DNA sequence: CACTGTGAAAGATTTCACAGCA
DNA sequence: TGCTGTGAAATCTTTCACAGTG
């Protein structure tokens, strides 16, 4: 679920409509027409497709791609239909074409420089995360409060003071800020980022950030994820009642050791690099 | 969001219905009746409420709580209505009561031991994350492949080898596994966790895990979050067209330095502890 | 009177199922 | 024939708006 996004107000929406009142997917508002939920999945498809490309797989059917991405094929086809018709009936999709189109749709053709604020464990992990640069998100700036960290290079980039956020972000053309500070400092850091013209924030701090409506915030909250899992544990143990025949045994196909399809996925994406 | 969840099949749903065919919210399936989306938000309300409790605020209205949590008050009231009627009309909610009821609903009255697999930067961050133990998720076991790490304590817990997952998880009664390994190892680690009886997985590796249907997986994927942000940047810069009067200036109330409401939220939740 | 709790409407997302094309 | 692309139905989620209550 979703998942977790945190922006209150909606933009005034200057709906582009054809004169007869029916919204048609013209180039201009094609982007606007894609459901939020589908966008999130497109990013997943992109990763899976990269895996296929690496294994020299050139064509996939909606069914294959759907299984690899963990969704059903109808949903996948509908999602892809939002970005256009790039499949071949009776055959499937060309991996390279689909990658290109999804990248275009997600705006990945241009680079987005990232600033990481809060260089603790998580900040280190983010600064070193191989998946970012390789996917068009170079980490361009690091910030912290700790005087001992100033100038210390982490993942090749020297740490600056949070007071320099406006200057440094402007200089290095930062478009995304990743807030990995403790809760207390998060809103303050966020305000500085907004001042500096950053319009996209990825918030790891356990706080609901207050931002002007033109700023997009996405929140990653570990405690919340845990609690959602906890809810499901609780719900299950509560279902001690009937162990329905069909429910008892696993789906056979589902459990299998290290499935081929994802086995070699994008090695550059290794999550963790030790300091 | 939202967020992002990743479980394919649904359970066969042995719907409890009253004999006349209308589903009534009996204690048994009360949990089942709560929409997935509402569960995620309940966890957020819980955090905000903890903040209020700490500031010695004993009563909140739906409006206050909604603002602090970044949702609208109608949604908040509906969400709370799923867990029961604990408000007082004309007054609001008692903070302590609400905290208790949400905790009960989310199954937080019992502890859930967590195992972290993959002790790199992210693993360190997770092992040291103060928000877990304080919220009923003690980190009880750490695993890695690296021989140099075996027995080394991280956040007070010695690292074990991934081969010992079944034994150690059973011994320490682990219910949640947090996979912070590189992509390659993730499915293998996941399989071992499932073998060990773990039914809840928080997956940070950029892979779609294949699991039996009784296992719940939640995925946190940084690259995907970035790409969603990228999409919104792209959409906006595409909207170079009309700069609608209302859209140009910020919402006044929204932007304000370090809002009171969240200023002192749960200090124990500090995201990052330096090694 | 102020605020909760909730049916019912509106909107968004998912699923179905099949027409249509290579 | 096999698979895509997509209207239409089903389902889930949000919002509205107001009756009901301490």
UniProtKB/TrEMBL annotation, chains A, B:
GO terms for biological process: negative regulation of DNA-templated transcription; response to redox state. GO terms for molecular function: DNA binding; DNA-binding transcription factor activity. Keywords: Cytoplasm, DNA-binding, NAD, Repressor, Transcription, Transcription regulation. Residues 107-208 form the CoA-binding domain. It is found in: Cytoplasm. Gene3D superfamilies: NAD(P)-binding Rossmann-like Domain, Winged helix-like DNA-binding domain superfamily/Winged helix DNA-binding domain. SMART domains: CoA_binding (SM00881). NAD(+) binds at residues 118-123. Pfam families: CoA_binding (PF02629), Put_DNA-bind_N (PF06971). This is Redox-sensing transcriptional repressor Rex. The keyword Transcription applies. Modulates transcription in response to changes in cellular NADH/NAD(+) redox state. Residues 1-26, 239-275 are annotated as: Disordered. Homodimer. It comes from Actinopolyspora biskrensis. Residues 1-10 have a biased composition (Basic and acidic residues). One of its GO terms (cellular component) is cytoplasm. Its main location: cytoplasm. Residues 44-83 bind DNA. Belongs to the transcriptional regulatory Rex family. The keyword DNA-binding applies.
């Amino acid at each position: 679920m979703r998942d977790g996004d945190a922006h209150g107000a909606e933009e005034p929406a200057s709906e582009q409509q054809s004169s007869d009142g029916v919204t048609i997917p013209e180039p201009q508002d094609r982007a606007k027409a894609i459901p939020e939920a589908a966008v999130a999945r497109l990013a997943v498809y992109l990763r899976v497709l990269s895996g296929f490309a690496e294994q020299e797989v050139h064509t996939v059917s909606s069914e294959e791609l759907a299984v690899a991405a963990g969704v059903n094929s109808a949903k996948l086809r509908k999602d892809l239909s939002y970005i256009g018709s790039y499949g071949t009936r009776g055959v499937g999709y060309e991996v390279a074409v689909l990658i290109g189109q999804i990248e275009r749709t997600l705006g990945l053709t241009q680079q987005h420089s990232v600033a990481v604020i809060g260089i603790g464990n998580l900040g280190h992990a983010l600064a070193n995360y191989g998946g970012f640069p390789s996917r068009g998100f170079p980490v361009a700036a690091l910030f912290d409060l700790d005087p001992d960290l100033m100038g210390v290079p982490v993942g090749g980039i020297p740490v600056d003071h949070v007071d320099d956020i406006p200057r440094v972000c402007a200089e290095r053309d930062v478009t995304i800020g990743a807030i990995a500070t403790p809760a207390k400092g998060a809103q303050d850091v966020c305000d500085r980022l907004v001042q500096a013209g950053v319009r996209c924030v990825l918030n790891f701090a356990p706080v609901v950030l207050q931002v002007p409506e033109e700023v997009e915030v996405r929140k990653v909250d570990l405690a919340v994820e845990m609690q959602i899992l906890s809810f499901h544990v609780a719900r299950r143990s509560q279902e001690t009642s009937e162990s329905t025949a069909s429910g008892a045994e696993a789906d056979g196909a589902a459990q299998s050791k290290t499935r081929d399809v994802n086995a070699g996925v994008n090695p550059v994406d290794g999550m963790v690099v030790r300091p």
